[in-house]
Amino acid sequence: MSAHESRSEPVNRAVTGSASSRIGLTLFWIYVLLYAGFMVLVLFRPDLLSLRPFGGVNLAIAYGMGLIAGAFVLAIVYMAACRAVEGGGPPRG
Amino acid sequence: MLYESSAAAIAIFAAFVLGVIGLSFYLGRKGQSAKGYYAAHGEIHWFVNGIAFAGDYLSAASFLGICGMIAFNGYDGFLYSIGFLAGWIVALFVIAEPIKALGKFTFADALDSRFNSRGIKLAVAISTLVVSIFYLIPQMVGAGDLIVPLLGLPHTVGVILVGVVVTMIVVTAGMVSTTWVQFIKGSLLVFFCGILAAMILNRGLVVGTGPAANLTPQVRTVTPDGTVLIDGKPQSKDHDLRPVGTLKALPDRYAGKTSTGPLRPLEYLAALEDSTIVTWSSKKHTDAAGTHTTYSPVERKGSELLKPGGYFKGLSTGKLADRLDFASLMLALFCGTASLPHILIRYYTVKDAAAARQSTVVGIAVIGAFYVLTLYLGLGAMTSGALDPTSTNMAAPLLAKSFSTTLFAIISAIAFTTVLGTVSGLIMAGSGAVAHDLVENVLGIPMTDHEKVRCGKIAAVGLGIIAMVLGVLFRSFNVSFLVGWAFNIAASANLPALVMLLFWPRTTKQGIIAAVTVGMLSSLGWILMSADTFEKVYGWSREASIVPFSQPGIVTIPLGFLVLVVVSLLTPKPVEPTASDLVRRHG
Prior knowledge:
The complex is a heterodimer. Chain A is an all-alpha fold. Chain A has helices at residues 11-16, 19-44, 59-87.
């Protein structure tokens, strides 16, 4: 049985109003800020990306790798948070 | 450069192709329902689906294109990796659960979940077909390009081979066999790229020797009768272009040495940044004797190559239009992934929203790891002394060849299978759009479960034939150029409608139809009128272009949102169906 079958609320709220959806949107905006910050540097201050604040690799590599690793970290946080939310009550969304 | 076919490459390639065909027939033995054919019964395990996401997504453009771009231009290829991966954030956090909850077989099911409108199904089916075909073309062209050095066969044979094998995979067992082929391909690709990256780190950085260290410019001429000359003499195995891409000097801390020895991952990048590297640029001119391409060495510091601006020259010119062009591409990559029909239909193959989420996380892990590896593969190729100056796409296989011919055979065969995995997903998406959306829902032709499957298989054969024809016709097109088109069109046509349907209750069916149609046509029209298309496709002057920059996303994605909002506000407010209506409508 679909999770929606037992409820009669409008489709939009059933799908996007769940706790997991709200967590997802929060994490989405966090990543958008990180991605936008990178784009601003590339577009307007590329000179900063040549700096080597950590001694070894430059900021361009470190930030790029960080965005890839950050996507994975946020994905894990999302999965764990959803599990915690859904584990405490009936299945949602 | 001329290539010799390798018996090992042929054997490995044949083994894989026969293996996947055998697997497809095995999986297709049982009679199939429509749910089995289009959505693998919704029974694929989330982990398998996650790896299959990687197999679906990591196309020839990701593997061959990004490695080649990094090898020849440095850091800018990695910008593609960052954009391609970031798109998965939209897929996971915004799209995954709703698309699973609202749809059944196709992307149109989800967009039409509130309205039951034939207009929406028609618009979305057409957009699915347009995006799938634009994405299919570069894959088929890439397959043809690979088959020449791998098997020593003509380009056309490569295209036909992929077309026939993929059509067989899809027709035999639909989404079930497609999923397993993508799972195998995704696993092999990441595993062997990991091995190749480990070998690069173990080799460390080595000062170039041999033919690649010869820094004399090279000239390739194609005469009016088609003869190829190298430095004025006919091209042959004994007189060919020299391989390129060498390291000229190590950092000062390695003074007196010609090799760093094994390096750890971050050490490798730091050492490369302090090294001196020779890359090659090309310049073309035509006269009565033919078309001459001159390849010249350019000595650069590693620190120059490991910062943005090597490929996207606009980043250093400071021109607003150039910056907007780059920002537009990165926006399209960010928004495009979650709008690609062949990615979206994979959410229907798992049992529920939680499995959709888990499989996306696995996909992000595998795809992210792969994109980190591409940085090492590209930089390893840059200093391998094995690059073909005429082909950026061959950087990864030729890097493997610098280690061993067996590894070259394996990497080449895997590169070929990247095409199989992606093309099978695209044909599956197109087949669903034709059979489920157009024939059943738009034309209203009633079909039994068995007929739905048969219709899907006929559509898959038709799409396979179209893909083969287009792969031959577009053989001279730039592969990554066409992939960029597909991302821009997908993001402009599909994302505004999907996001607004989910988050704005006032969205009407007319708004969705208008947004999909305007997004698709405006992005396509912009691309066809862009300076890049004028120059690379029509052979006209860039200055004749009537749009200010080539990548449309930064204009056409917001345009899609705007059109949806305006049309929705101008049309009657929708009566929102309840969840019970949804279940009754979509089963």
